[in-house]
Amino acid sequence: MGFSPPFQVTPGRQSLVTPRCERYTFRMPQNPGEFTTRPVMKVDVPAIIALYRRAIVPEWIVGGRSYDLDRVEANLNARLDTAGYTTDVVTRDDVLVGYLAWEQHADHTSHHVVAHLRMLLVDPTVQRSGVATRLVERFEGAAKSAGCTKVLFDVIVGSPANDFYAQLGFRHWSNYMEKLL
User: Fold this and answer.
1) 111 near 14, Cβ under 8 Å?
2) Which of its termini does the chain have fewer beta carbons within 10 Å around, N or C?
3) Do 114 and 105 contact (CB within 8 A), yes or no?
4) What is the reported pTM?
5) Tell me, what DSSP letter sits at residue 15?
6) Residue 6 DSSP class
7) Contact 134/37 with Cβ under 8 angstroms?
8) Does residue 18 have a pLDDT over 50?
9) 160 pLDDT above the threshold of 90
10) Could you read off the pLDDT of 86-143 as tens digits, one per residue?
11) Would you say 139 and 104 are in contact if contact means Cβ atoms under 8 Å apart?
């Protein structure tokens, strides 16, 4: 895919899982500004895929999980304008450093209107700086406004992110984390 990312990249060695997936060294600008949260735009998709490479693909590799970023990109492009599917990004100095996607559906077993968190990514260079908390708080507020009564999402067993979610009031339920709104 030919795009010029809005950040400096240094090509690294090829991934062992997907031969055409380069690893990049990500550098934040010096003296970074404030974080800004906004809805995703089509122009953000290449930067979101690059964020996947930095933020979650390494965890997937360690966990032995396969991935297909072409499929992720196609799904994201297809769903961006779909009613009930909401996506937000966090930027700093026009650099995309966070991404969240969720959708609303009815849970036929619990009779809740569920906000299903599909993905939350934060660039490793800004983790523990409030980006994920900012995205989750915005997500919970939007979910409540949309009439959702419960948040549910899949978790990777053993992920350090699970402690973060627990601190925000989520609890484990089977292979999921959940929280009543």
Assistant:
1) no
2) N
3) yes
4) 0.78
5) P
6) S
7) yes
8) no
9) no
10) 999 999 988 999 999 999 998 888 889 999 999 999 999 999 999 999 999 999 999 9
11) no
